[in-house]
TrEMBL record:
InterPro entries the record matches: 4Fe4S_Fe-S-bd, 4Fe4S_Fe_S_CS, Ac-CoA_synth_d_su_TIM-brl, Fe-S_Ferredoxin, HgcAB-like
Ranges that cross the membrane: 163-184, 190-211, 232-253, 265-287
A molecular function GO annotation: metal ion binding
Domain named 4Fe-4S ferredoxin-type: residues: 297-326, 329-358
Keyword Aminoacyl-tRNA synthetase: no
Protein name: Multi domain protein containing corrinoid/iron-sulfur region
Length: 388
């Protein structure tokens, strides 16, 4: 329990940095030859949270920890750091086939953006089952016979995650602010430190109040990706105005209201708000990053190829798809929710899906599978048979 708490605290404070965990086979409880086999990446926070759920629920199973380069599953798979080769390697080197009779391995659904179930099956004979998005749903997923409810497939941004993201931003910025204040404005060191924690929490905790105004697909004359990075509607202005009002009220009540007071604190708060609001949408799981040009793409369906198999429904983290059983095809009634992760394109066995740019240019499935996104959102990271 102490380790679990420590890993989560440190992992939250340093969320922006890789956190390694030992790879290999972990036995949970007393598994036998019929026990389920789970596989995840070697991001320490993820492994501890999955273990915690499995142990708390008394689930006897095997947990394979594969090399995701110490990064969380979604980011590592999308960026080409968690690949088919890593899953194949984990299955073969662990010799898990000697411990169980079945050949089913449960992977996190969010790994579907980069790991091809078909390739894993071809190279190992193991069938990939996409588990729920969140570890908390694993017990119900097992009780349902490895079937997910719509809620299990969908990413959310609840209060707990928003608090984690606020903490991730607040911790480094508060240290930077305190360090600079120590040399330049020592009397404001403690207030600036506290402000660096207050503003991130205000922005992320209140996210549901303004999220409907966010638009990562802004485009048009004079609109660049850098404009989107720094602009998420009128929210910065609202927070800034609210802070200035509080500042003026405080200065008036304490008798310290003057031009220097307002300018200093106004400038300091503006810097903090701008730093926190950089790519706010990319800090959430429900919007595409403003850094990524792919935010302007749409997923196109080839009706002649689609058979309505439902793989896209199973891997889509935003519940964009529904199966039309009568016509043996799929529909996208919630296409506006798409975050262009590409999981549906990567996993479609009939190559019925592809990206299309606003100018009509098509990005075929083989490109999405072979080239992954770098930090700037460019599809440049090449993945070839175990090499990145």
């Amino acid at each position: 329990m102490l380790r679990y708490i420590l890993v989560n605290v440190v992992g939250t404070l340093l969320r922006a940095f890789p956190m390694p965990c030992r790879t290999g086979l972990v036995k949970i409880g007393n598994p036998d030859e019929n026990s389920p086999v789970f596989l995840t990446g070697n991001y320490c926070v993820t492994v501890e949270r999955v273990r915690r759920v499995l142990e708390r629920e008394g689930i006897d199973c095997y947990l394979l920890v594969a090399n995701s380069r110490d990064i969380n599953v979604w980011c590592s798979a999308a960026g080409g750091h968690f690949t088919n080769h890593d899953v194949v390697s984990a299955l073969k080197t662990s010799e898990i086939e000697k411990l169980v009779r079945h050949r089913n391995v449960i992977l996190p659904q969010l790994a579907a953006v980069g790991i091809e179930a078909r390739k894993v099956r071809e190279k190992t004979g193991w069938n990939v089952i996409w588990g729920p998005v969140y570890a908390r749903d694993i017990p119900e997923f097992l009780r349902n016979g490895y079937k997910k409810t719509p809620k299990m497939r969908r990413v959310e941004f609840p209060l707990t995650q928003r608090v984690e993201m606020a903490t991730m931003w607040a911790f480094p910025f508060s240290l930077i602010a305190a360090f600079m204040a120590f040399f330049l404005w020592r009397s404001a060191l403690i207030p600036l430190f506290l402000l660096s924690w207050l503003l991130p929490y205000a922005i992320f905790v209140s996210f549901p109040l303004y999220s409907r105004f966010l638009d990562s697909k802004k485009r048009g004359p004079g609109v660049s990706r850098y404009t989107v990075i720094f602009d998420f509607g009128k929210i910065p202005l609202i927070f800034k105005a609210a802070f200035i009002l509080l500042l003026v009220a405080y200065g008036a009540l304490t008798g310290g209201l003057n031009l220097e007071f307002v300018l200093r604190w106004g400038f300091a708060s503006l810097l903090i708000i701008l730093m926190i609001s950089i790519d706010l949408m990319g800090s959430t799981p429900v919007y595409k990053s403003g850094l990524h040009e792919e935010r302007l793409l749409r997923v196109a369906l080839d009706g002649e190829r689609c058979t309505g198999c439902g793989v896209c429904v199973d891997v889509c983290p935003r519940a964009c798809y529904e199966v039309d059983g009568e016509n043996h095809t799929v529909m996208m009634p919630r296409a506006d929710k798409c975050v262009q992760c590409g999981a549906c394109i990567v996993q479609c066995p009939f190559e019925a899906l592809r990206f299309e740019a606003p100018d009509g240019r098509a990005i075929p499935p083989e490109i999405v599978r072979r080239f992954k996104l770098n930090l700037m959102g460019k599809r440049l990271v090449r993945v070839d048979e175990g090499r990145v």
